[in-house]
Design goal:
mainly alpha; 2 strands
């Protein structure tokens, strides 16, 4: 994923126009910092273009997992993928372990600004509020203060 971001940033260089203060004034922090995540936004758009929305929980899960991959890139995480083994007991999925290595769990995003995903998942067109990253009390306080962390 990190290599995709480097390539995407290179492709985006010189394209697009950074939003003006007037365009951003109706967005609170961290949403108004989405420009810094535009490479991730484009990569997510490409993913969604391939996996068209169908209104299912499976599609939402697929998109939120991809968002977690994009926004946790390069940050250590504690994700462990499980499958149900005998008697319904969770069993670590060894095949998927390498894929999830280093990916953050959903609740580990609570202190991360992640402006691009927070802006996208707050739009009225986002299917469900549960697709948003959680926010810690400290991050909520920073948003209320209009902080730029």
């Amino acid at each position: 994923m990190a290599c995709h971001r480097v390539t995407q940033k290179h492709l985006l260089e010189g394209h697009g126009q950074q939003p003006t203060d007037a365009e951003l004034e109706h967005l609170s922090w961290p949403h108004n910092m989405w420009w810094s995540d535009r490479d991730r936004i484009v990569l997510l758009h490409e993913f969604i273009s391939h996996w068209q929305p169908d209104g299912s929980f499976e599609w939402e899960s697929l998109v939120t997992h991809h968002a977690a991959d994009l926004w946790s890139a390069g940050r250590p995480g504690s994700t462990t993928l499980h499958r149900h083994g005998c008697n319904g007991q969770p069993k670590i999925d060894e095949q998927a372990k390498d894929v999830a290595e280093g990916r953050m769990c959903w609740d580990e995003f609570q202190d991360l600004a992640a402006p691009g995903w927070r802006m996208l998942s707050s739009l009225p067109s986002c299917p469900n509020p549960h697709m948003r990253f959680p926010m810690s009390r400290d991050l909520l306080d920073a948003v209320r203060r209009g902080a730029v962390c």
